[in-house]
Amino acid sequence: MHCLNTAWEQHAAELRSWLLHRLGQAQDADDMMQDLYLKALQQGNRFCEILNTRAWLFQVARNAVADRMRVKREMVELPEDLPSLSDPVEAVDNLIECLPRVLSELSAEDRAVIVLCDLQGLPQTAYAAQAGITLSATKSRLLRARQRLRQRMTQACQVQFDEVGRVDDFVPRSPIDPKN
Question: Which residues contact 136 (CB under 8 A, 6 or more apart)?
Answer without folding.
Answer: none
